Amino acid sequence: MTTGEPGQQRTDRSPWNWLLVLPIVLPLLTFLFNADEPRLLGFPLFYWLQIAFIAVGVTCTTIVYRMTK
């Protein structure tokens, strides 16, 4: 892959890309949310963690984008 400038190579190999593993692996750790308690506003922990996983994914993606831009 090249950038718009001649003679300059663009590489996608950045250590920041490893941060994108976190939103993939985190929801696979079922022991984190394999419980009915605690509840927050009547909703079990599972639902709150799903929203937290989305926030983690967006945050990691934003950080990687800005650091590798």
UniProtKB/TrEMBL annotation:
InterPro entries: DUF3311. Pfam families: DUF3311. Keywords: Membrane, Transmembrane, Transmembrane helix. The chain crosses the membrane at residues 16-33, 45-65. This is DUF3311 domain-containing protein.
